[in-house]
Amino acid sequence: MASSKLSVTMTKSKFGRLPVHRACLKGLGLGKINQTVEVLNTPENRGMINKVSYMLRVEEI
Q: What are the structural domains of the chain?
């Protein structure tokens, strides 16, 4: 499972969000709206994605 990747796209602005949520976006490598990154499907990345899932679109690759 750790070898699979996820495509994560930020769909909402980070402004006005909790500092912890901003840190999760930074940890995932996201900074701008509509920016897409590929991350490994690990428990650490899944936790960050779950925390800010209302701001993201996630697809398995």
A: 5-60 (3.30.1390.20)
